[in-house]
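Appendix C: a fully annotated inverse folding record. The material below is reproduced so that readers can follow the format used throughout the book. The structure is listed first as tokens, followed by the designed sequence.
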């Protein structure tokens, strides 16, 4: 433990010296994929030079066993999509216990605690998601094997939730007065069917938010600054239906569906920006000896670029309508409708907006400095689908980071978490948060 402390402080001092000596010499420095401007680096240097910050970082490390214990308690409360209530209640109690007596649960089910700054500062949100992908009857109890902690949801996002609670403790214990307001959020609805309903509600209710960070999963190497958007539809075909032998010649909902899927299967999409589509599920028909009255498929479309996603959707609508027209023309001669008509309806079942935060934004720069300061430099910028999609799509700077340690098997019942050096996660969140909102008498807000 002492060795690790010493190494850590050495790294800090090296970082401070590097930052301080570069004043006036260069206007930028590269931290992996991120270019950091001098003014951002200077303010960050002032922050990490404060002895209270160093004491807090040491306290976070010393407190890691309790962070891990909290992570396990949270993980063992089931929280499937739309059934996050029990975990949310527990999370609310934990926030209240940690000096946030006004924390509350909003109408969507998000747990929200606001820590006021000294005024006139930015409003910064740091969040972790309450929901998991696992149904209510999944066994979520912990099993420890070979130093690894196995439980569905233990990393995604048990780790983020626990890191966030430790962050609240650390800021309160530091005695530092922030300039900006910090909103701590345990949000619902990040996973598939939730469709980002938690963060959608947050940005609807607080349009004045200046910046957002999601702690999602484990690790301390990645910054997600791009948001893959998705549009999902249930595509529903309806026709007259009838007996397969006596009513032969009627238009068929399943035949129209088949034509539509064949057309979609032939679509071309760009490799860059990455754009994808798939018909995930198919259902319909009444029986083997019926001309189908109803049929439907579920379609998933994604892109890292909003315009490409819109283009793909327009193309899909066009080829599906062409398939319906073909089916209607196949059985009806010369524009007649004697053999019935197939109609199609696109029902939206998922909508995750696309977005990105520029690598040049101070939020990303501060993140790179914080990664460097905890001794785990940023290895890359990523694009994926996270809660940050929502603010990114609104032009509000946002990134997603990991909560420390490492893990694997996400979204499977074999999900695991390795707590080695896991304290780096909450340490990173601590430095990032304070740098972004600013500290009275120490450093200016970077949001
Ligand atoms: Zn997650």
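Designed amino acids, in order:
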């Amino acid at each position: 433990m002492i060795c690790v402390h010493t190494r850590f402080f050495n790294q800090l001092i090296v970082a401070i010296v590097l930052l301080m000596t570069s004043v006036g010499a260069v206007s930028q420095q590269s931290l992996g994929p991120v270019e950091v401007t001098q003014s951002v680096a200077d303010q960050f240097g002032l922050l990490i030079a404060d002895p209270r910050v160093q004491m807090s970082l040491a306290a976070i490390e010393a407190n890691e066993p309790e962070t891990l214990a909290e992570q396990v308690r949270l993980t063992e409360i089931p929280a499937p999509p739309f059934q996050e209530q029990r975990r949310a209640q527990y999370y609310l109690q934990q926030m209240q216990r940690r000096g946030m007596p006004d924390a509350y649960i909003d109408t969507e089910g998000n747990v929200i605690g606001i820590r006021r700054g000294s005024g006139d500062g930015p409003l910064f949100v740091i969040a972790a998601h309450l929901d998991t992908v696992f149904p209510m009857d999944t066994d979520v109890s912990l099993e420890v094997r070979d130093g690894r902690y196995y439980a569905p949801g233990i990393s995604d996002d048990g780790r983020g939730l626990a890191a966030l609670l430790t962050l609240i403790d650390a800021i309160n214990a530091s005695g530092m007065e922030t300039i900006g307001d910090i909103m701590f959020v345990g949000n619902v609805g990040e996973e598939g069917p939730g469709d980002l309903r938690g963060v959608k509600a947050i940005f609807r209710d607080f349009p004045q938010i200046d910046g957002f960070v999601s702690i999602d999963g484990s690790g301390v190497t990645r910054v997600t600054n791009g948001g893959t958007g998705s549009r999902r539809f249930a595509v529903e075909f309806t026709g007259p239906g009838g007996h397969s032998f006596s009513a032969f010649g009627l238009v068929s909902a399943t035949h129209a569906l088949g034509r539509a899927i064949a057309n979609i299967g032939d679509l071309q999409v760009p490799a860059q920006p990455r754009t994808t589509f798939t018909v995930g599920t198919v259902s319909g028909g009444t029986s083997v000896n019926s001309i189908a009255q109803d049929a439907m498929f579920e379609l998933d479309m994604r892109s890292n670029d909003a315009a490409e996603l819109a283009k793909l959707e327009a193309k899909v609508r066009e080829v599906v309508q062409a398939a319906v027209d073909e089916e209607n023309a196949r059985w009806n001669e010369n524009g007649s409708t004697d053999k019935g008509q197939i109609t199609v309806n696109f029902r939206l079942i998922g909508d995750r907006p696309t977005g990105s935060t520029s690598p040049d934004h101070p939020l990303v720069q501060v993140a790179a400095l914080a990664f460097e300061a905890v001794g785990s430099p940023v290895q890359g910028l990523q694009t994926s689908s996270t809660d940050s999609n929502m603010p990114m799509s609104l032009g509000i700077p946002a990134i997603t980071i990991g909560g420390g340690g490492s893990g694997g098997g996400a979204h499977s019942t074999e999900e695991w978490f390795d707590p080695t050096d896991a304290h780096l996660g909450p340490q990173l969140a601590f430095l990032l948060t304070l740098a972004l909102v600013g500290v009275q008498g120490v450093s200016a807000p970077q949001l």
